Amino acid sequence: MRPILLSGHERALTQIKYNRDGDLIFSVSKDQQICVWFAHNGERLGTYHGHVGAIWTVDVDPTSTIIASGSADNTIRLWDIKSGKCLKTWEFPTAVKRVEFNEDGTKLLGVTEKRMGHLGTIVVLDIKVDVDAEQTDEKELTIVCDESKATVAGWSYLSKYIIAGHEDGSVSQYDGKTGDLIYNIPIHELNMAITDLQWSPDRTYFITASKDKTSKLITASELEVLKTYIADTPLNSATITTKKDFVVLGGGQAAMDVTRTSARQGKFEARFYHKIFEDEIGRVRGHFGPLNTVAADPTGKGYASGGEDGYVRVHQFDKGYFDFMYEVERERQNRLA
Amino acid sequence: MAAQTKHDWADDEDLDDTTATVDLPPPQKITNKDGSSTIIEYRYNDNGQKVKTTRRIRFITHREVVSPRVAERKTWAKFGASAKDGNGPAADTTSVGENIIFKPSVNWRKDAKDEVNDPNAQAMKDKLKDKKVKCRICNGEHFTARCPYKDTMAPIGEGVDTADVAAGMGDEPVAQGPGAAGAGKKGSYVPPALRGDRAGAGAAGDRMGGKYGERDDLATLRVTNVSEMAEESELRDMFERFGRVTRVFLAKDRDTGLAKGFAFISFADREDAVKACNKMDGWGFKHLILRVEFAKKAA
């Protein structure tokens, strides 16, 4: 496969998101701009300007009408995808590290940083998925994380729960309506921050990535660990592919943690694991720095990775990827045929 | 998508020594029968020489059915920093990376390791995997120098043992040659470097022979009827079109420096060598017709 290199950012990438149809890629970086790209050829559709700080996170609503972004300038902004106009700005006391729409796009959660005497919070905003509508200023819900701040969070199936990953390596489940804490389970190693949380297509389970060099597949309803993927480097991101039962992990030794890092030693590769058998089945090289974010195309045709080096690499899988099967999988297919 | 079909080295650069007085002919575009088109352009290079560039380009239309929503989004006007970009990916933001071979595999870790090491070295290791250290005095599993009977017993079956080491080297005839010679013709003079009958030197000798042993004769072509004026680099350019060339050897006269008329080309891959052999046999090169065949194994 020949990856498409997107060099629209001048600083490290922080998050990449595909829209639901898999034709648009949204990328945010510390250089204060959001880019949107066509996934099939890497053409840039446009950029969204307005943030005055590093942008940590972006999410697109299920109908691909609006996007939300969270930034170190203490705001969440809502944008019209088509025109690039900023529709709404919400101010917060601290930086926003993660935003995510729920399944139908009517609610948006934001994770705010713990800083300057403010505790980390998870806020929920009501969203009208309409470019012309007036968005409300009111926060529907605020969950305060008084023990360990949340680093990532997301909506489960039917917006029933809010799942949050914490800096201390634990995962919490909150009620999606009341915000009450239901569970808080230490899943990853103590004080190894959870760096990413991405959902399966039906949002019944999710994958976490952690600095403890592992990634775990966890159910949304019981927070039961289904699978563990062990890597040899701190992980920054993990995603679940569709069509094939794989997961993609991204990470690498951060440059600040070592004196010298070559591309190989730094382990700046996207790692593919089999989702069920937990085996590592391959790696994709290319980045010059740690992978900060990986995103799988919802159609299963490819994936994109964004690195500390400021590049987004969009990969379209080729035949060998789709043909790969374990012996047991092949036997099963033959039996069914 | 544009694919450049079968680039021909001969068309690549035709250097004419004409001075820059003649105006350049206009670029030509010819549509070929097979659907591809040939574009011929002329320009002057840095030395003032006229350069003719011929490119054959084939356009392949790739159709994909997308949902109406996606199709509609493709017609959207660009905005923000991309507002001024034309249709298609802009060169400053989008580029295509080098090809990555990604084939999921259960034991990819092993595969990757093989790739990292020299393939020849790996092959050698595999061959020697079953070989154990064997004492020539007592046939125990230790080096002869460490044998407890070193001072009391004479080595047994010396000739047999060296043959064994040579066999361990595998099928490389060049490596086997001196080793076998050393073992076989007993009594005849064997240069010290080729003697395989000393404990330490056995291994060292192997390694020295290994330099030739690693050479893969299976993917080596013998090219004869090569012009005297030929250069190794020219041969390399010619043969590299078929695959990775690991070695080019052009026999040259020691005094005059002119080519003797034959050369050996080693490929990394035997399949490439077969392709090259078929294509290049009978190829006209510097007023002579090349004869290409697979190199015979050294006797």
From TrEMBL, chain A:
<comment type="function">
    <text>Component of the eukaryotic translation initiation factor 3 (eIF-3) complex, which is involved in protein synthesis of a specialized repertoire of mRNAs and, together with other initiation factors, stimulates binding of mRNA and methionyl-tRNAi to the 40S ribosome. The eIF-3 complex specifically targets and initiates translation of a subset of mRNAs involved in cell proliferation.</text>
</comment>
<dbReference type="GO" id="GO:0071541">
    <property type="term" value="C:eukaryotic translation initiation factor 3 complex, eIF3m"/>
</dbReference>
<keyword id="KW-0677">Repeat</keyword>
<dbReference type="GO" id="GO:0003743">
    <property type="term" value="F:translation initiation factor activity"/>
</dbReference>
<comment type="similarity">
    <text>Belongs to the eIF-3 subunit I family.</text>
</comment>
<dbReference type="Pfam" id="PF24805">
    <property type="entry name" value="EIF3I"/>
</dbReference>
<dbReference type="GO" id="GO:0001732">
    <property type="term" value="P:formation of cytoplasmic translation initiation complex"/>
</dbReference>
<dbReference type="GO" id="GO:0033290">
    <property type="term" value="C:eukaryotic 48S preinitiation complex"/>
</dbReference>
<feature type="repeat" description="WD">
    <location>
        <begin position="6"/>
        <end position="47"/>
    </location>
</feature>
<feature type="repeat" description="WD">
    <location>
        <begin position="48"/>
        <end position="89"/>
    </location>
</feature>
<comment type="subunit">
    <text>Component of the eukaryotic translation initiation factor 3 (eIF-3) complex.</text>
</comment>
<dbReference type="InterPro" id="IPR019775">
    <property type="entry name" value="WD40_repeat_CS"/>
</dbReference>
<dbReference type="InterPro" id="IPR036322">
    <property type="entry name" value="WD40_repeat_dom_sf"/>
</dbReference>
<dbReference type="InterPro" id="IPR015943">
    <property type="entry name" value="WD40/YVTN_repeat-like_dom_sf"/>
</dbReference>
<keyword id="KW-0963">Cytoplasm</keyword>
<keyword id="KW-0648">Protein biosynthesis</keyword>
<keyword id="KW-0396">Initiation factor</keyword>
<keyword id="KW-0853">WD repeat</keyword>
<protein>
    <recommendedName>
        <fullName>Eukaryotic translation initiation factor 3 subunit I</fullName>
    </recommendedName>
</protein>
<dbReference type="GO" id="GO:0016282">
    <property type="term" value="C:eukaryotic 43S preinitiation complex"/>
</dbReference>
<dbReference type="GO" id="GO:0003723">
    <property type="term" value="F:RNA binding"/>
</dbReference>
<dbReference type="InterPro" id="IPR027525">
    <property type="entry name" value="eIF3i"/>
</dbReference>
TrEMBL record, chain B:
<keyword id="KW-0963">Cytoplasm</keyword>
<dbReference type="GO" id="GO:0016282">
    <property type="term" value="C:eukaryotic 43S preinitiation complex"/>
</dbReference>
<dbReference type="GO" id="GO:0033290">
    <property type="term" value="C:eukaryotic 48S preinitiation complex"/>
</dbReference>
<dbReference type="InterPro" id="IPR035979">
    <property type="entry name" value="RBD_domain_sf"/>
</dbReference>
<keyword id="KW-0396">Initiation factor</keyword>
<dbReference type="GO" id="GO:0001732">
    <property type="term" value="P:formation of cytoplasmic translation initiation complex"/>
</dbReference>
<comment type="similarity">
    <text>Belongs to the eIF-3 subunit G family.</text>
</comment>
<dbReference type="GO" id="GO:0003743">
    <property type="term" value="F:translation initiation factor activity"/>
</dbReference>
<dbReference type="InterPro" id="IPR000504">
    <property type="entry name" value="RRM_dom"/>
</dbReference>
<dbReference type="GO" id="GO:0005852">
    <property type="term" value="C:eukaryotic translation initiation factor 3 complex"/>
</dbReference>
<dbReference type="InterPro" id="IPR024675">
    <property type="entry name" value="eIF3g_N"/>
</dbReference>
<dbReference type="InterPro" id="IPR017334">
    <property type="entry name" value="eIF3_g"/>
</dbReference>
<dbReference type="GO" id="GO:0003723">
    <property type="term" value="F:RNA binding"/>
</dbReference>
<dbReference type="Pfam" id="PF12353">
    <property type="entry name" value="eIF3g"/>
</dbReference>
<keyword id="KW-0694">RNA-binding</keyword>
<feature type="domain" description="RRM">
    <location>
        <begin position="219"/>
        <end position="297"/>
    </location>
</feature>
<dbReference type="InterPro" id="IPR012677">
    <property type="entry name" value="Nucleotide-bd_a/b_plait_sf"/>
</dbReference>
<comment type="subunit">
    <text>Component of the eukaryotic translation initiation factor 3 (eIF-3) complex.</text>
</comment>
<dbReference type="Pfam" id="PF00076">
    <property type="entry name" value="RRM_1"/>
</dbReference>
<feature type="region of interest" description="Disordered">
    <location>
        <begin position="1"/>
        <end position="34"/>
    </location>
</feature>
<dbReference type="InterPro" id="IPR034240">
    <property type="entry name" value="eIF3G_RRM"/>
</dbReference>
<keyword id="KW-0648">Protein biosynthesis</keyword>
